[in-house]
Amino acid sequence: MSFDNKSSNRLATSNSGVLGWHAAAWQSIVGEKSRWPHAVLLKGERGIGKLAFAQELAKGLLCERSETLKSCGDCTGCNLIAAALHPDFRDVVPAAASPEIDEIALDRARDKAKKPSALILIEQIRELTDYVNIRSQRDVGKVIALYPAESLNVNAANALLKMLEEPPPRTYFLLITHGAQKLLPTLLSRCRQIALPAPDRQQALGWLAAHGIRQPELSLAQAGGAPLQAAGFDGDYWVQRASLLAHLTAPRFDPLATAEALRRHEMVCTVDWLQKWVFDLIFLKVVGKIRYYPDCGEVLSKLVNGLDSREMIRFSKELSDQREVAGHSLNAQLFTEQLMLSYSHLLRSGRYG
Length: 353
Ligand SMILES: [Zn+2]
What we know:
The chain has 353 residues and is of the alpha/beta class. The chain folds into 2 domains: 5-195, P-loop containing nucleotide triphosphate hydrolases (Rossmann fold), CATH 3.40.50.300; 234-349, Zinc Finger, Delta Prime, domain 3 (Up-down Bundle), CATH 1.20.272.10. Helix content is 50%, strand content 7%. β3, α8 and β4 form a beta-alpha-beta unit. α5 packs across α15 (267-286), α14 (255-262) runs antiparallel to α18 and α15 (267-286) packs across α16. It starts with a helix and ends with a helix. The model is unreliable at 1-8, 98-106 and 108-114 (pLDDT under 50). It binds zinc ion. The site of zinc ion has 10 residues, from α4.
């Protein structure tokens, strides 16, 4: 990974401002600039605005005027950050990561042959050594943001641990994760952990509406309540989703025709949609509610009555296993056919099929 100014200041120019549902968390730390720890882990669900929070932290730590973590927005440090040119800021992400960092984006990256790595590699941590050890150029401090932290491979995590043992003064690491349980316990123990909450439904819907997202309720449901993820669904996403649903809800399900129609879709997306579909079937059967597909209530209700519960759980488990390999499977058509045949088996367990 190159550390040219443009690529190393991505975080600094991402969404601006702490999101409303993180205001309390922000207020609880804003006065701590003078005693800010050298390693912090920001953790919380995917798509809730952790990067925006980290961005404000980085700005505050590098601001040359403010005594608190609330940056002044006007000093040289603040202007350099705003221009994505601050020499004392680095971010470290997987080479394959898109601006929208989420699990699906990472898995999509794994889809591509000869793809760039979806992990943060030890070389990237080693490249930080000089940066960490030389004096900061603005003489205020240095900030290194790593995200998603769960994409650190074991070697990279161990190299980072060494760096965290004795960091030079005013060197601040910000680790950001939606998979804290996947991090090495030794790494966790070296970080101050800050848990960032997800918004409630009204906050999330208000934010989506303010950002001009069409179908905010459906988008939010499909994203499992994560507004920033919901805002990232583009036109292609909805076209592919509609195509899958047309097949899943057809009066007579045809697995091979469905697989053929979906073969150009990203496998990870297909698995994700199916996981949500079968989750809703199980949720509907057990709790009587729908989480991800509120626009398909009628067809889900009709479908679920005829399905065998054990088969639903079997298919759900199979999807979890397939998700692990979806990014590595080279034969998309075969992969999708197997999934659809398995879904067909589920349907035959009941009176549909
Ligand atoms: Zn400033």
